[in-house]
């Protein structure tokens, strides 16, 4: 059985990530998704683990300042992780065309000069971005989008009645006819309490557990 830990926004807080990884190992996690704004210092903690990365705004803005070998690695991080019924990204499943990796998004920012919140909107506060994300799920026939960026653990689910609800968990079922946005919270700088937060994703059972570490 696969059990995936989905986390984001470590922001160079190495000790917080170390404690989180210890707790997640105890839960029998088999894979990790890191959804951006990690920072360079915690990367050694993830070496040898079954981890997949996506970039966040920290990786894009800080890319030129990384050491050469690390820059090459981070430059190739994708915008999304995708599966049969899910997508995971830093801020939103909807990026401008061409923003497919850290490096290509850095080029986009410097060629087009958008505001950062245009590319990395808040799925907690930006209503237009929330509905665009839900529309993307509908268009791609996906049940769930995982995201970080807000530093708040929050689940918003659009039901068959077309009403958007905030769900509190701790266990969220992904059922047919729903579209769900899962803010995984922050490991390093949580804004919804003093303790780190992430989620556990069981794709076989199609359920999510909200975790406070």
Shape: globular
Total of DSSP H or I helical runs spanning 4+ residues? 7
**Regarding CATH, which class?**
Alpha Beta
Largest sheet strand order: 3-2-1-11-12-9
Q: The CATH topology is what? A: Purple Acid Phosphatase, chain A, domain 2
Number of domains: 1
Q: What CATH architecture label applies?
A: 4-Layer Sandwich
- Mind summarizing the main beta sheet? 6 strands, mixed
Helix fraction bin: 25-40%
Strand content: 15-25%
In CATH, the homologous superfamily goes by the name Metallo-dependent phosphatases
Please describe what this structure looks like.
The protein is of the alpha/beta class. The chain has a single domain (4-212), classed as Metallo-dependent phosphatases (Purple Acid Phosphatase, chain A, domain 2). It has 7 helices and 12 strands.
Strand and helix map with partners:
Elements: E1 4-7, H1 14-26, E2 31-34, H2 43-46, E3 51-53, H3 57-62, H4 68-75, E4 81-82, E5 86-88, H5 102-112, H6 116-119, H7 127-140, E6 144-147, E7 153-158, E8 164-167, E9 171-173, E10 179-184, E11 197-202, E12 207-212
Keywords:
alpha/beta; Purple Acid Phosphatase, chain A, domain 2; 213 residues; 6-stranded mixed beta sheet
Give a short overview.
The protein is an alpha/beta fold. It has 7 helices and 12 strands.
